[in-house]
Amino acid sequence: MAKPDIQAEVKAINLTLKADCHRVSIQVRGRRLSLVSTLPPKPGSNKRKPHQQRISLKLGATLAGIRRAKAQAILLSDQLDRGKFTWEDWGQDTTKTTREVNSCGYWLDRFKAEVWKNLPEDKEFNWRKRYLYFGLNKLPTDKPLTPEAIVLAVLTKPEDRKAARDKACTRLQRFANFAGVDVDLSKYKAGYSRSDIKPRDIPTDKEIETLIDNVQDAGWKHVFALMATYGLRDHEAFLCTLESRNGALVANIPKNTKTGTRTAYPYPKHWVERWSLAAGQPPELKAHQAYGQKTAEHWRDRLKYPGTPYNLRHAYAIRCHHAGVAIGTASQWMGHSPKTHLDRYQRWISETVSRQAWEKL
Fold first, then answer.
1. Which of 101, 112, 141, 308 has the smallest number of CB atoms closer than 10 Å to its CB?
2. What is the mean pLDDT of residues 265-279?
3. pLDDT tens by residue, 21-65
4. 246 belongs to a structural domain
């Protein structure tokens, strides 16, 4: 006797249910059957409106199970039509799970699973760098997820750190929308723009040499020297490898970085020898997520230096423009598009172009 095609049987019954205007369908999950319909939020849920949910049935995926599931589907549809649906009628232990499904930790786990599938390689690193460390890690995992909890997580990013505050608002708003929490975080944005990179914050080459020469820790000196010489981001200084190529010591940036694989060239070249970059090594840190945080902390708290380490990268871009490096080439070395490069450094590009035009005159 031929084995019954369970999926085909379920599909046929679902078509019948739809034709009879029942708002419920049957779904095969492994060896079990479930009902799927737009249902009111479960007690304790952060959702405010009815949404598609699943009710697990204690029925096997057999012909007999499908027949019973059809009867259950018609009963559920009738309850919904008459406004008589309750979760208790369907064997859902709402009291046991209310605290769990309402907690920050529960929704964080679900949100992580949602974004995980679209993250690039080294998913844990990218989850932490792109989401967790922009406020999600400040949510109390064992406490209820409320608008107030989300706002407090945003406020852990100081308003004077505009870029970090705005990213926290964006990430936490997406998380709130996912969990069905009604909160508007746009009012907490600091309004970061490229114009916030102040010309006075960018150190000159002489100042950079003095700053890096005075770093006593060899590992951190190596990190800051790489950022200055190759225009690297903080995590790239830890992950890159140096290679001698046609008379130049180039930095090869690997795939598991913000913008992926590329090669950066040193400028000015003599800094390679000044700080013995071929022989240096960065300090050992425990995890990827510590790169940016630890780099900023060492610069700000241990060295008491002005601005941020990223200004070394900005100085590299401006230095390339003053030397006449084409925008397409400079942007490739730095790992972003020519448009991003223009948007970020337009004022210095314009100044350089204007100066060169005047000198020709």
1. 141
2. 95
3. 999 999 998 888 999 999 998 877 777 788 999 898 888 888 888
4. yes
What's the confidence (pLDDT) of residue 120? 75
Neighbours of 181 (CB within 10 A): 19
The verdict on whether omega for the bond into residue 144 sits within 30 degrees of 0, i.e. cis, is no
In this structure, the answer to whether residues 148 and 278 fall within a common structural domain is: no
Residues 96-113 have pLDDT tens digits of 444 555 788 888 888 888
Share of the chain above pLDDT 90, in %: 35
Number of folded domains in the chain?
3
**Residue 298 placed within a domain:** yes
Mean pLDDT score of the chain, rounded to an integer?
A: 85
Q: Are residues 265 and 344 in the same domain?
A: yes
How many Å separate Cα 165 from the centre of its chain? Answer: 14
The answer on pLDDT for 69 being more than 60 is yes
Domain end among 191, 225, 252: 191
What is the mean predicted confidence (pLDDT) over 264-283?
95
Structural domain containing residue 219: 199-360
Q: Where are the alpha helices (DSSP H) in 217-326?
A: 218-230, 234-239, 270-274, 290-297, 310-322
CA distance from start to end of the chain: 94
**Distant-in-sequence, close-in-space partners of 19: CB < 8 Å, separation ≥ 6:** none
Report how far apart, in Å, the C-alpha atoms of 277 and of each of 229, 231, 242, 247, 282 are.
9, 14, 8, 15, 10
What residues have CB less than 8 Å from 238, skipping those under 6 apart?
A: 223, 282, 285, 291
Contact (Cβ atoms closer than 8 angstroms) between residue 90 and residue 55? yes
Strands laid side by side in the 241-245 sheet: 241-245, 248-253, 262-264
* CA 234 from centroid of its chain's CA atoms: 17
Helix (H) or strand (E) run with residue 63 in it:
helix 63-82
